[in-house]
Amino acid sequence: MTIRKLGVMGAGTMGSGIAQSAAQSGYAVIMVDTNDAAVERALDGAAKTWDRGVEKGRLTETDAEAAKTNLSASASMDDLHDADLVIEAVFEDFDVKAALFRALGKVVAADAILATNTSSFRVDDLARHVAEPERFLGMHYFVPANINKLVEVVRGQNTAEATFATALDFARSTAKEPLACRDSYGFVVNRFFCPCVNEGVRLVDEGHAPERVDAVSRQVFGSPLGVLTVMNLSKARIAMNACTTLGGLGAFYEPCTGLIRMGEADAAWEFGEEPAADNAADAAIADRLRGATFLAALELLDEEVAAPDAIDLGAFHGLRWETTPCSAMDDLGQDGTIRLVEAVAALYGRDMPRSTARAGSLLVG
Q: What is the pLDDT, as a whole number, of residue 92?
């Protein structure tokens, strides 16, 4: 199937970013939202972004004007009747999303692809509310969606091969890096990043300074932002909810005491002066953060949710980690990986993943 027109349900942060990216890539895009103020902000924000691109030499005036022409908005879902692909990007409420897909089924063409941008719900659970679920899948974008290159393209149990292939091609045609994966709680990036954040907060609960946890996480993963800083940006409440969703997988994934406290208060970390480095303490922090991340990544491999290179793709583009999980485990080798993973698994009474035996050759084996 060829995608010519994109529909985006929701003109908030995610919806507007997805729409902007596709319009700039040459697609006719219509955003649908009943909130007039949100629509106005989205259209105005996109126009200003493209104008700045012209000023800085990143876009030609012709391209900027074409992008503006490509992007339109409506308050009526009926205007999606001729869309080839519709991406839902409303707020994270399962009942709202389910009702939306039931309504969309009565509007769009029978062969139109429907996708959810959910970050917390399973694609297969939402698919129960979609007519012809073979044309349904997940397309999880990362903030800011107009800039971040990563899109998790999530195949549900009933997603047709042609639907999946078309979604992957569409993502590539909008200058994105699609991460192909199977449906699972947390998909790929949240599945290993949420435990990493959670473990960082546990370390603070145990007495480590948040400034050191944040600094060590930057060093360990080669990232511009530490895990607690990322939590501040994405909101503690969101991190708590994500870990709560993953909590069905066991105590390792459940939100720790500090994360629940921060999430319920909708609080942010207030960093003071960074304490001097303490080699022993910093090594303990590094080991726990790496062990938690590796444990979750290896479980993803056991469950065949995604391949090792896809996991690393997610870390690199989605989180801007220079030191990615599977590459790092290959560098450590089997013995080094076992040491870190075994220690964390023991803390939560978790079995060692079978894929630990592949450490050292994950990306080539």
A: 87
Sort residue 131 into left (φ over 0), alpha (ψ -120 to 50) or beta: beta
Read off the tokens for 245.
């969703």
189-358 carries CATH number 3.50.50.60: no
User: Does residue 249 register a pLDDT over 70?
Assistant: yes
pLDDT digits (tens, 9 = 90+) for 109-168: 999 999 999 988 999 999 999 999 999 999 999 989 999 999 999 999 999 999 999 999
For the chain, domain boundaries: 5-182, 189-358
Task: Please name the amino acid found at residue 255.
Answer: P
Asked if omega into 195 is within 30° of 0 (cis), the reply is: no
Q: 183 — phi, psi (to 5°)?
A: -60, 135
Give the span between the Cα atoms of 66 and 25, in whole angstroms.
10
pLDDT tens for residues 174-224?
999 999 999 999 999 999 999 999 999 999 999 999 999 999 999 999 999
- C-alpha pair distances (Å), 60 with each of 18, 48, 55, 69, 317: 21, 14, 9, 14, 26
Q: What is the pLDDT of residue 365?
A: 58
Distance of alpha carbon 199 from alpha carbon 201, whole angstroms: 5
28-79 pLDDT, tens digit each: 999 999 999 999 999 999 999 999 999 999 999 999 999 999 999 999 999 9
Looking at 3.40.50.720, 3.40.630.30, 3.10.129.10, 3.90.1590.10, the CATH number of the domain 5-182 comes to: 3.40.50.720
Distance set, CA 248 to CA 57, 185, 221, 311 (Å): 49, 9, 27, 21
